[in-house]
TrEMBL record:
The lineage of its organism: Bacteria, Bacillati, Actinomycetota, Actinomycetes, Kitasatosporales. The keyword Metal-binding applies. Coiled coil: none annotated. The keyword Metal-binding applies. PANTHER family: GLYOXALASE_BLEOMYCIN RESISTANCE PROTEIN_DIOXYGENASE, LYASE, PUTATIVE-RELATED-RELATED. Residues 11-135 form the VOC domain. This is VOC family protein. It holds the Pfam family Glyoxalase. Keywords: Metal-binding.
Length: 154
């Protein structure tokens, strides 16, 4: 590949997150997203887990942090997961409510005024901002943010 060539079949691979408590995060991500543990390590100071579905690695968790996610610092803004239907979004919302998750908005909201796509916006146990959305079905709700994408400022 020359210095000016770019990859032609580029797609996002797995996402790696630093967490403070691997067991707590494993429970959360497995219950909310149905992830399966594909591998893990439990050496002192080197705890980690590889999570995925149907043999595809999607998320890695690394227990090497203290404190809570700092949204005011440069880095990850939020991690978004697309599902097929708004019913799946609502089912995930139910699980999250059982877990006591913190939500940015109450219930399913569209991505913007008049948008059909939308979902739920919430935080994981370490305060990492997450979204679960569907490409359609959210247009019956009012957009909570005027003149900006709903997922942009939470």
């Amino acid at each position: 590949m020359s210095a000016t060539a770019v990859p032609t079949a580029l797609q996002t691979g797995h996402i790696g997150l630093n967490v403070t408590d691997l067991d707590r995060s494993l429970d959360f991500y497995r219950r909310v997203f149905g992830f399966e543990v594909q591998g893990e390590g439990r050496e002192p100071g080197r705890a980690f887990a590889f999570l995925g579905r149907e043999g595809r690695l999607m998320l890695t968790l690394w227990e090497q942090s203290k404190g809570e996610f700092a949204a005011e610092l440069p880095g990850l803004h939020h991690l978004s997961f697309q599902v097929d239907s708004i019913e799946e979004v609502r089912a995930a919302e139910g699980v999250l409510r059982e877990l006591g998750a913190t939500f940015k908005y109450d219930g399913v909201v569209p991505h913007g005024e008049g948008a059909a796509s939308g979902g739920i916006f919430f935080a994981d146990p370490d305060g990492i901002r997450l979204e679960i959305y569907a490409p359609s079905g959210a247009d019956s709700a009012a957009a909570p943010v005027a003149a900006a994408p709903t997922c942009g400022f939470f």
